[in-house]
Amino acid sequence: MVKITVSDKRNPIPQSLELSENIKITTWGAIKVNKADFFPSSFQIKSGEKVIYIDPVEVDGTDKADYIFLTHAHPDHLSLKDIHKIAGPETVVVCSKGVEKKLARHNFQLRKVKPGDMLDLGDLKCKAVEAYNTKPVFLWIKAHPKSSENVGYILTLSDQTVIYHAGDTDYLPTMRDIKNTDVALIPVGGDNLTMNVEEAAAMVNTLKPKMVVPMHYELKVSDDINKFKSLTAGEIQVKVLQ
Fold this sequence. Notes:
Elements: E1 4-6, E2 15-18, E3 23-27, E4 31-33, E5 36-39, E6 43-47, E7 50-54, E8 65-70, H1 80-86, E9 87-95, H2 97-103, E10 109-112, E11 118-120, E12 125-130, E13 151-156, E14 162-165, E15 183-187, H3 197-207, E16 211-215, E17 217-218, H4 222-231, E18 237-238
Parallel strand pairs: 7-8, 8-9, 9-10, 14-15, 15-16, 16-18
Antiparallel strand pairs: 1-4, 2-3, 3-6, 4-5, 5-17, 6-7, 11-12, 12-13, 13-14
C-alpha cells in the first residue's frame, strides 16, 4: 500500500508563478511517497476569481475549488481527503474513467473525459489528451497502460493563456500536435513511470512552450533536473519549484 504524507523537506512557503496580474500557479511542494521525498504533479491555478486544482495531494490551502482536474487514479494524483477539503457544492470535478469509478459513490459533480474530449466550461476550455506508457515496468506490464484512458489536460483560461498538464506519461507522437502552449507541467525522470530526462527534454523542445515546470520527480535526483535544464532549448524558460 502506498503511503502519502507531507515531506519534512517541504518548503514552508508555497511556491508560486505569477503569469500575469490575474493568473497564478501555486504548489505546496514536496510530499513523501512511502520513504521517498517527491515533488508531485499537484497544482493550484488562480485565473481571475476562479480557482482550479490539478491532482491535488496534501494541499495546505483552504481555497474552495471551482474546478478540480484529475489525471488518473494513482494515490499520488488522487487524494479523496484533499478533494473533500477543497470541493464545495458547485465544484466541477473533471476526471478519467478510472477516477470516476473511485469517486462515483461520493457526492461530487463529476465530468468523465477520455483522450480527445473537449469541454467548454464557459470561462475555461479544456481538452483531455493521451497520457500513457510505451515502455513496461516489468515484462509487458505498464504502470499507465493506454487502455486505462488516463489523461493530461490542456486548459485555456479566460485570457487565452494555455497551460498543459501532461499527467503521467511517456513521450507520445500525439504530443507533436500540441501548439501555442504558455506553460507546460511535465513529468521528468520517472524511471518506467514517465519520461526520463532525455525524453522529457526532447518532448519540450518539440512542444516549445514559453515556460516549463518539471514535476513528478524525487528530490534526491536534483542532477536529473539540472540535466533537464541543460538539454532544454534556451528560449524556453525552465522554472523549478520545490
